Amino acid sequence: xLLQDKHGRFITDLRVSITDRCxxxxxxxxxxxxxxxxxxxxxxxxxxxxxxxxxxxIDKVRLxxxxxxxxxxxxxxxxxxxxxxTPDSRQLDLALTTNGHLLADLAAPLKEAGxxxxxxxxxxxxxxxxxxxxxxxxxxxxxxxxxxxxKRAGLEPVKVNCVLxxxxxxxxxxxxxxxxxxxxxVVRFIEFMPLEEDRVWAPEVVVRMEEILxxxxxxxxxxxxxxxPSETARRYTFDDGLGEIGIIAxxxxxxxxxxxxxxxxxxxxVRTCLFSLLDHDLAARMYAGASDGELAxxxxxxxxxxxxxxxxxxxxxxxxxxxxxxxxx
Length: 329
Prior knowledge:
The chain is of the alpha/beta class. It is 29% helix and 17% strand. The protein is built from nine helices and twelve strands. It has helices spanning 43-55, 74-82, 103-113, 127-134, 139-153, 173-183, 209-219, 282-287, 292-303; strands at 13-17, 60-64, 93-98, 117-121, 159-164, 186-191, 222-224, 234-238, 244-248, 261-264, 269-271, 280-281. Strands 7-8-9-6-5-4-3-2-1-10-11-12 form a twelve-stranded mixed sheet. Helix 3 (103-113) packs parallel to helix 5 (139-153).
């Protein structure tokens, strides 16, 4: 039986964090000095759990972290995932999100192993500003090389995600528009969410969708592109059709009603929403000897508890029990 929550949404998208470690300390994410807090499972155990999810209707798997390219054995793991088939014999839509620092050397091997697409987190196209945000002095050139290597390898469309923070990088909106047009990548601006370690989020720090569109239109007129129902980004191109911009606006324009995703953390816990207050310990049941069928039944019971929506900005909002880096993007 396919996964469907009590709100009628079919769950087809699984985000899997394969490590809690990261080699960046971005100011909107790892705002403290904490390193990894949770363990990583053996890759064979992630594979077993993902197989069960796929048999329940998951057809898109995105590998995340932390930074997934830090995980040894990644290429072989992708090769194993690429062999999986959905109940109707389709291949998985297999993708990966990375900060791109190690991507230049891994893009071609990952493509050959079966990875289809890659998304790179990159919050400035100015090296000095990039270093200020990531707190890594030599990162910009590595990430740019990784993006270009991904394009050469055919991991397209290459998407570049930029989290906007007022006072840090809102001046990069037009620069990223140029970057999309010149590099042939899809740039996606993401509204800053309350998911950072030190919990310093405030509404006034959020650069909202309307402001992003205003600045884009000042650069060059934009027109909206069609969206798939469960797509998180509102898609735009410019009047001449060159370049693509997405805007992911969970704060100002929530898209919870069409959510099709759940997450598996690096330590094997299911989270039904980024803003969940609870973890559901799937790995503990696996290590206690549960059969695949028993694990599938548990997954069904967890998905049935999926939240209707998040409550960012509402009175009484409670921040999630983990920060973003410890959940998986």
